[in-house]
Amino acid sequence: MSEINIGRRKEKCENCSKQQCSKKQSNEGPSSLQEKAVANGEVSEPHQVQQVLLSSCLSCEGCLSEEESRCISQQNLEELKRVLSLNKRCDASKHKVLVVSLCPQSLPFFAVKFSLGVAEATRKLCGFLKSMGVDHVFDTTLAAGFSILESQREFVRRFRRRHHDSHALPMFTSSCPGWIRYAERVLGSLVTPHICTAKSPQQVMGSLVKDFFTQQQKLPPGKVFHIVVAPCFDKKLEAVREEFYSSLLESRDVDCVLTSGEIFQMMEERKVSVEDLDSVPLDHVFGEADEAGLVRHEGRGSEGFLEHVFKNAAKELFGLEVNEIVYKTLRNRDFQEVSLERDGETLLQFAAVYGFRNIQTLVHRMRKGRVPYQLVEVLSCPGGCLSGRGQAEGEGGHVDKVLSQQMEEAYSSLPVRLPEVNPELQRLYQDWLQGQDSPQALQALHTQYSQPQQQPPQTLPPDIQ
């Protein structure tokens, strides 16, 4: 989705699932030439017609309100440059404190581009950001730990009430904004009650920065400009959701999302030499430098919600320890399942479903009551988060498979750390949230998903390549 051309936009509108839309285009209508692409504000020339990919569907404006379009259009490199420029010109008392949070799935991209290990590439990236005027650089692994732990607990609660709550299972993961938008705007009440209420790592990180970190630094939340670097354009859409604006703090949890590719573009514009960059350690939300080293969670490069929830559920519900998860490939590599069995009985059956073609297969089965899974990890990008269009898109709008493979290898090199044994998470549960099941924890770590008002559930769109 790095470029959205007119030919692709027109075809998307013709196949869009939205029934009433002022942006519907005709073959001869010149207005299509004037409409902007939401993802990054770029529209290429009409002669560059490409086949539309359903995985890119959010780059047309059919599902966006005018306010969403306006907010997303501001999330670009120019906005970051504007804030940096204002800081240089205005009085120090009016400066914005710039905080950047790096998604762990973005770090392998820079490792490959820099020809360095992930840890050293991250330190170089941190050095670049701070040389521009960024004050603090975090990674979001800590926030992802919160999201995983809350998802684990929610699944156990849902499983235990499955016999008297028809919406308890299956539970769908909630960290992918492309999937969430599709569920809300297209699938409606068929799916939304089944979506896990735990916030995504990005939005948990937003709460951490704008609430806990600002308290630690004795700063008003509005003083902080929070940027997230992510592998996916759709994360921009997540950041502008109405529920992620705090009227109490008068601030958005995340002010701007930039993709890995956009940050790399800025480095290229400035003709930055990686060799000349300082190697600077990441910061920590507690205020000190983070010298502990980078870690990752279990799974295939997308925070491993399925694996963490599966192992926790096996232990909590059945007293079984699962050390290794074996995936069974069904339709393709992006549609896999795992099972927990005892004495010939299937106790748990989970699935990982990536890419909209596989998602449609899942939904068709759900409509027919043929979904045997208690949990489904759903991601809109084929290949998962590492293959996000903000960093892995190659020629013709397709994923650069060589780059994706290199990023997978780089990500796999990081050591695994379970969130359950992370003392920093337990410290934050107490110091920040006053306990795991407190009202503060519910507000900071959870949200709700539902179909928008005045938009009835829509029929599934036709198959798109």
From TrEMBL:
<feature type="region of interest" description="Disordered">
    <location>
        <begin position="19"/>
        <end position="40"/>
    </location>
</feature>
<feature type="compositionally biased region" description="Polar residues">
    <location>
        <begin position="441"/>
        <end position="450"/>
    </location>
</feature>
<dbReference type="InterPro" id="IPR009016">
    <property type="entry name" value="Fe_hydrogenase"/>
</dbReference>
<comment type="similarity">
    <text>Belongs to the NARF family.</text>
</comment>
<dbReference type="InterPro" id="IPR050340">
    <property type="entry name" value="Cytosolic_Fe-S_CAF"/>
</dbReference>
<dbReference type="InterPro" id="IPR003149">
    <property type="entry name" value="Fe_hydrogenase_ssu"/>
</dbReference>
<protein>
    <recommendedName>
        <fullName>Iron hydrogenase small subunit domain-containing protein</fullName>
    </recommendedName>
</protein>
<feature type="domain" description="Iron hydrogenase small subunit">
    <location>
        <begin position="397"/>
        <end position="453"/>
    </location>
</feature>
<feature type="compositionally biased region" description="Pro residues">
    <location>
        <begin position="454"/>
        <end position="465"/>
    </location>
</feature>
<feature type="compositionally biased region" description="Polar residues">
    <location>
        <begin position="19"/>
        <end position="34"/>
    </location>
</feature>
<dbReference type="Pfam" id="PF02906">
    <property type="entry name" value="Fe_hyd_lg_C"/>
</dbReference>
<dbReference type="Pfam" id="PF02256">
    <property type="entry name" value="Fe_hyd_SSU"/>
</dbReference>
<dbReference type="InterPro" id="IPR004108">
    <property type="entry name" value="Fe_hydrogenase_lsu_C"/>
</dbReference>
<feature type="region of interest" description="Disordered">
    <location>
        <begin position="441"/>
        <end position="465"/>
    </location>
</feature>
